[in-house]
Design brief:
By secondary structure, the chain is mainly β. Helix content is 14%, strand content 39%.
């Protein structure tokens, strides 16, 4: 019988990201990460009231309202332009709040999907700081929960792998061996007990130009 893992894993705000795409372009392009995000607020809420009856209190609930807000360092990107265009032209935007460290058995990440329009795009430009934007969405309908793949180009944008200091020959493999590198193996690598003189000797044998 398999042993159940009872350890509760926590999620970090760093790994929670907003991806967007104009709804009208869904058949043409993939969603994009808004670059340089500094804050993301997802706040679904439903007001509740009660009615006193002769048989007791009867609760009533209002329609679901969802507040979505993202702050980021202003930048030149398709995603940043889509947000302003949505506000100016009332274009509908698809939004995904992605928790990239919550992964299922198929390698897909947990996401909350929504549609809405940008209703505010505040842009601050202090002379001694980066230009920043604070964008608020009005979400229509009910957010939907699910799992999504992250395309390779988005994965590459969010993370990078080890590479050696050497020249990268040919296409990048992104497996830790680029630049004559070897990725760290936490099960076997210790870094202890290596003679520095032996490392220099091996380096000269591998790269005669260093002699």
């Amino acid at each position: 019988m398999p042993v159940r893992n009872t350890e509760v894993q926590f999620l970090q705000g760093y790994d929670t990201l907003l991806l967007v795409r104009p709804l009208s372009m869904a058949h043409k392009i993939s969603a994009e990460v808004i670059p340089f995000q500094t804050s993301l607020s997802f706040d679904p809420q439903r007001d509740t009231d009660t009615n006193q009856t002769k048989s007791g209190i009867v609760p009533t609930t209002a329609s679901l309202e969802t507040d979505l807000e993202v702050e980021f360092v202003n930048n030149i990107s398709k995603a940043a332009d889509w947000l302003l265009d949505s506000l100016l032209n009332e274009g509908e935007i698809e939004c995904w709040v992605v928790y990239r460290k919550r992964v299922n058995g198929e390698g897909k990440v947990f996401a909350i999907y929504m549609r809405g329009k940008v209703t505010e795009d505040s842009n601050d430009n202090d002379p001694d700081d980066n230009s920043t934007r604070d964008v608020t969405f009005t979400i229509s309908g009910k957010p939907q929960l699910g799992w999504t793949t992250l395309p390779d180009d988005i994965q590459a944008e969010l993370a990078y792998v080890f590479r050696g200091v050497g020249v990268i020959e040919g296409d990048e493999k992104n497996d830790g061996t680029d630049g004559q590198g070897t990725p760290w193996n936490k099960e076997t690598d210790t870094g202890a007990g290596t003679d520095p003189d032996e490392l220099v000797k091996q380096s000269k044998q591998t790269n005669p130009t260093n002699q």
